[in-house]
Specification:
Chain lengths: 148, 86, 148, 86
């Protein structure tokens, strides 16, 4: 399931929902991304996140489908926030449950890495009264390519 | 928008620097994403960056596209900087 | 921080505690292991978990220390339950927060993989009135060696 | 336990099959984990499995040990099957 939303989310509740995916589930891996004080700039006080409505959901569903073809995925959940976020706010959540831990870790990390380079979100860093559109990192492209 | 036109959308830094969220353009036969990009870049000023040093990504009907991807009447084409979510 | 306990744990609360590790934290990776209906045997109805008190805590602290030397680890948490567990019960939790997602994923997965082959826990599968000590898997040894 | 003895502990399947949680044994000079294992295996019956086909892991003073690890008076030695937690 995929949600693009301005509201915050509750990782505990998301985890409990993933966990309740049947008695064959042995592993739940989750990732949460938070607004950090240093990105392209230091002294970041907030972010603004823009996305391409419609396309974003399709891309994310495609990533879950790809992960489900490569690994045992019992349930997968992606939440991404958009709009204005403050320091330490939650930005993104990816949770995967599987029979086995290797599959849960791999699918969760794959979805996060692929999201970074293929889902149409754009981040603007805010530092006091300056704004700066974040540049895509070569390291993110490398991580994403490593899954091919 | 009529069926003979196409919609072009811009996001993030491009949207801001072009001061344009979307355009409606007539289609020309044999048009591609790359051709459309050249046409828009030829407007000059901030539009020139569409063929500048910074990479521009494209989508047709909300799926990632290449310069060679054909563009048909009724399509939704989008141009945007490399994505930076997550 | 390490806990070996018979009681259940609350992943949501553990996540919130990890997350509150300062404004330099950009990534939280978690893993939870659950009692699954098929392990060595099928139709598993529960587990019994034994450990070596004292040694377990030392080994787990050593794994957190190793992870902290290899990756940026802001905070790490390991919880492992012992005693009698029922189907779908939580067995283990590993959570790591870091500046970067690659470090959070790697440290979390490393700790789980190394725990599987070096922390003195032993699992007995219960299926109705049969009991069976679980055998160590070659695949677990392989995963653990891959981090060397 | 006196300082001249060592404590040997057994866990999991070994604990059950040997029906023994712990032993106190006198130490012999130059004793190693491997030597101690041979000595115990020589008791025969279920003890023979300590040198059987199934691998046995060892710890000395709660740290993983090898057959060559020396065993001193006062040490806590443990024998157990390969671990299966997580």
């Amino acid at each position: 399931m995929i949600s693009i939303q301005t509201e915050d989310f509750d990782v505990g509740a998301e985890y409990e929902a993933l966990r309740a995916s049947g008695s064959g589930t042995g592993a739940v891996a989750t990732f949460s991304g938070l607004v950090r004080d240093s990105g392209d700039l230091s002294g970041v006080t907030g972010l603004f996140l823009e996305h391409y409505p419609g396309m974003t959901e399709q891309v994310l569903q495609g990533l879950i489908d790809s992960a489900s073809q490569r690994w045992d995925v019992r349930k997968a959940r992606v939440i991404h926030r958009v709009g204005r976020l403050a320091l330490s706010d939650q930005i993104v959540f990816v949770g995967v449950c599987s029979a086995h831990r290797g599959d849960a870790f791999a699918a969760c990390e794959f979805i996060m890495d692929a999201l970074k380079t293929s889902a149409p979100f754009w981040k603007k860093e805010i530092t006091g009264d300056t704004e700066h559109w974040v540049e895509q990192k070569d390291s993110d492209l490398d991580r994403s390519k490593a899954w091919k | 928008m009529t069926d003979q036109n196409l919609t072009v959308r811009f996001f993030a830094r491009l949207r801001e620097e072009l001061d344009t969220e979307s355009l409606e353009l007539p289609t020309t036969p044999g048009q591609t994403v790359g051709g459309l990009l050249s046409e828009l870049a030829a407007r000059g000023g901030p539009w020139a960056q569409l063929q500048g040093e910074q990479p521009v990504m494209a989508a047709v009907n909300q799926a990632m596209a290449k310069p060679s991807t054909p563009v048909m009447p009724g399509d939704e084409v989008a141009f945007f900087p490399p994505v930076t979510g997550g």
